Task: structure prediction
Amino acid sequence: MEIVYLAAAFIISVAALTTGFGFAILGGKLLETTARQPELGDQLQTKTFIMAGLLDAIPMIGVGIAMYLIFVVAG
Result:
């Protein structure tokens, strides 16, 4: 049963790590594009917030799957 706990920890850690990279890339591209075309700043910011919301769903799904593994499969 310990392998289930390791799998859950791996799922959560990979989801958090990749989300961090995703936010870093998203923020960098926003700054880069806004610096090139400042007149599109408001539109880009709105689209970036929408993408950030979608990107934030990934670790939430991972946590849900990990909780399922811990409480249903291992329990």
Q: What stands out?
A: The chain has one domain: 2-73. Helices lie at 2-36, 41-73. The two ends are 9 Å apart (CA to CA).
